[in-house]
């Protein structure tokens, strides 16, 4: 593994953007976890794991990750392929693993459908995550019903009521 930063992408969907990032940032190590098809391209600083969030996170060493990114994936699905649904038990297990895999003071970045945001905030609070930023609307390419959440392990907690879902 590279000596630099480690980033985990949960439910990445299309592997191309991760491969682009890996090419641009050769000292960052990228781990992509998705139930979908494993890409053919191989780069020294990317590993794609074709599995679900929980199994995939279990293969990542605790306390080694600088950033976990999940856009429209974590929180939206259960452990197997299927339609969008909130699966509390599965999300708790995956959330706990995310927390334990992140280094202290490091970040979970989520883009979520609006209907899941409040539940996710409550779940992450129960795992002692700290919200370091208010939820903000994702610009440009995202539609207004998708929200962005940046969650830090150790920053001061904001009240849920203070989170603006625009
Ligand atoms: C709506 S797509 C989002 C893809 C991409 N992140 C984006 O924003 O365009 C959801 C992705 O999550 C993956 N997925 C769904 N449930 C999963 C699970 N339990 N574990 C791992 N990947 C999962 C799917 O295979 C799919 O690629």
Topology:
Elements: E1 6-10, H1 16-24, E2 29-34, E3 46-50, H2 53-58, E4 65-71, H3 88-101, E5 102-113, H4 114-126, E6 130-131, E7 136-137, E8 146-152
Parallel strand pairs: 1-2, 1-4, 2-3, 4-5
Antiparallel strand pairs: 5-8, 6-8, 7-8
Structure description:
By secondary structure, the protein is of the alpha/beta class. It has one domain (6-162): Vaccinia Virus protein VP39 (Rossmann fold). 25% of the residues lie in helices and 28% in strands. It has four helices and eight strands. Strands 1, 2, 3, 4, 5, 6, 7 and 8 form an eight-stranded mixed β-sheet that branches. The longest helix has 14 residues, at 88-101. The protein is globular and about 35 Å long. The N and C termini lie far apart (40 Å). The model is unreliable at 136-145 and 155-166 (pLDDT under 50). The structure holds S-adenosylmethionine. S-adenosylmethionine binds at residues 11-13, 33-36, 52-53, 71-73, 77, 79.
Quick overview:
With 166 residues, the chain is α/β, with parallel strands linked by helices. Helices cover 25% and strands 28% of the residues. The structure holds S-adenosylmethionine (SAM).
């Amino acid at each position: 593994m590279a000596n630099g930063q480690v980033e985990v992408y949960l439910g990445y969907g299309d592997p191309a953007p991760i491969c682009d990032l890996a090419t641009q940032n050769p000292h960052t190590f990228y781990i992509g976890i998705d139930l979908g098809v494993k890409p053919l391209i191989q780069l020294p600083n990317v590993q794609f794991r074709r599995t679900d969030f929980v199994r995939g996170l279990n293969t990542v060493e605790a306390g080694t990750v600088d950033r976990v990114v999940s856009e429209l994936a974590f929180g939206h699905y259960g452990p197997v392929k299927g339609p969008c649904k909130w699966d509390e038990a599965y999300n708790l297990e995956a959330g706990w693993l995310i927390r334990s895999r992140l280094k202290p003071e490091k970040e979970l970045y989520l883009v979520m459908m609006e209907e899941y945001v409040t539940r996710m905030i409550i779940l992450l609070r129960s795992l002692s995550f700290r919200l370091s930023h208010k939820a903000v609307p994702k610009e440009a390419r995202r539609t207004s019903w998708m929200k962005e959440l940046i969650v830090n392990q150790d920053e001061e907690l904001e009240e849920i009521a203070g989170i603006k879902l625009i």
